[in-house]
Specification:
The chain is mostly beta strands. The chain has 2 domains: 12-65, no CATH class; 84-189, Macroglobulin (MG2) domain (Immunoglobulin-like), CATH 2.60.40.1930. It is built from 2 helices and 11 strands. It has helices spanning 35-46, 53-65; strands at 12-16, 19-23, 84-87, 92-99, 108-117, 120-121, 125-132, 146-149, 152-158, 168-177, 180-189. The strands form 3 sheets. Strands 3, 4, 5, 6, 8 and 9 form a 6-stranded antiparallel sheet that branches. A 3-stranded antiparallel sheet has the order 7-10-11, with no helix packed on it. Strands 1-2 form a two-stranded antiparallel sheet. A hairpin with a 2-residue loop joins strand 10 and strand 11. The two termini are 20 Å apart.
């Protein structure tokens, strides 16, 4: 079962020996995933509130129930058709692309970012790329991007395969233009 990434849960009260662990409803991006639930369970175990394997198993089951694991969401960026662009509101347009097409997991790819400010390609930008999978930690994937042409920044990398079969990825592009930070997020599918 795949859950929507912004789904919330009601407050949880886990009765344990020596007390009760209360897990409040989580807010923002932190509300989604298994980490907060497992962290609460680990804190309870460290405090010696439970010595029963059934309670420990229940904590793990609850954590897995609320974890989407490689969640699939709608992708506004069709990376296989071409680049995706986003205007940031600061007069900066960030475009993101991956070559070769079609983009496939576990293949060498080139990540390309174009940076424009008021229709002028920016040569003095520092560009960072952070690839992640919504709802599933897939390790750090931050290819180094270097300027290869006016306003064009490239880096090589690989998009790993999700062990649960998910295909939705997020590219967070951070651009530093003379100390002014601009961020664009691109959600796309890779098969």
């Amino acid at each position: 079962m795949i859950f929507h990434r912004y789904m919330t849960h009601p407050p949880l009260n886990l009765p344990l020996e020596g007390g009760e662990v209360k897990i409040p409803p989580l807010q923002g991006e932190a509300r989604w995933g298994w980490a907060p639930l497992v962290a609460a369970g680990i804190r309870a175990l460290k405090r010696g509130m439970t010595k029963h394997p059934h309670v420990e198993t229940a904590i793990i089951i609850i954590a897995l129930f609320f974890s989407p694991g490689c969640a699939d969401t709608k992708s506004p960026c069709d990376i296989d058709r071409g680049h995706c662009s986003q205007e940031t509101g600061k007069g900066v347009t960030i475009s993101f692309d991956i070559l070769p097409k079609p983009v496939r997991v576990m293949s060498d790819v080139t990540f390309i970012v174009f940076v424009e400010k008021e229709k002028v390609l920016m040569n003095d930008a520092i560009v960072f790329l952070d690839l992640s999978m919504p709802g599933m930690y897939m390790g750090r994937n931050q290819p180094v991007l270097k300027k290869t042409a006016p306003g064009r920044y490239e880096g090589k990398g690989i998009i790993p395969r999700c062990p649960r079969g998910g295909t939705t990825w997020q590219a967070k592009v951070t651009v530093d233009l003379n100390g002014k930070i601009t961020v664009a997020d691109f959600i796309f599918e890779v098969h």
